[in-house]
# Entry
Amino acid sequence: MSRRVGFLSHSDFSKHRAGYTHPENPDRTEHILKYLGESDIYSKLRQVEFQSSGEEWLESVHTRGYVDLVREMCRSKGEYLDGGDTYINEYSFAVANLAVGACLVAGNLVAQDKLDRAFCCTRPPGHHAEKSAGMGFCLFNNAAVLARYLQVQHKIQRIAIVDWDVHHGNGTQAIFYEDPSVFYFSVHQFPHYPGTGSEMERGANDGEGYTLNAPLHSGSDDSEFINAINETWLPAMTEFRPQFIIISAGFDAHFADPLSECKMTSGGFKTLTDIAVGAANESCAGRIVSVLEGGYDLAALSESVHQHLLGLLE
Ligand SMILES: [Zn+2]
# Structure
């Protein structure tokens, strides 16, 4: 029997755009939707309609000063949050909040057992966003706000975030670095943007041991990513016993992706998904919310998301 998997996307995500060619652009989610729409998977997914802002939850993770800064910069039509990577336009604040809102709606439905799992086909991505700084195309940390929301709203204590975007999720790591209730794992190309994510970074104080990094050399392929998830992440999960799993699902480790030198295939992402699903079935009744992070070759991204969804449906 296939699982009840929610799919959340929104045409308003396309309003966040740069005035020039940028890899993180509306074509990403639009191409995924078109690709899925032409495949037979679309009818198996439960389309979740939503029009929900995550704004009131931003400060569970971000500082008020940073939230105000992003709001004000969008209002005054500023162009960048950082040196030039992270553009904004007049709609970006609302769109980024819609992305957070999608994650919270998905989290609610899964926590209330109305769905088994969900995929948030959202943008902008979130895992580079720190408490008081946006960077790396990320404004607000979608996965991190979701984790806090589940803890506060649904009294879910132990949450695991698994991040297989090819870039290290410095923002998510920093937010939970001293927190033993959220286990953050990242597998990524190293050294690479943003520079963090060595094996030495393992959390601090009460959070020591609850951050785990599996840095991989450039050129790493399916087998190396799969090994990292199987041999590093999975044993840690067996011990941690998460009550909910969040996937920071980036697909930019694909061989066709312009922003990395890794060599994964779209089928490799199915295997990573299968392992996460197995861990979720074992520890938390299968509960997963997956959130789109990177992935910048349109065909590779769409194929990989398709494979990911096949895994979530099993
Ligand atoms: Zn990335």
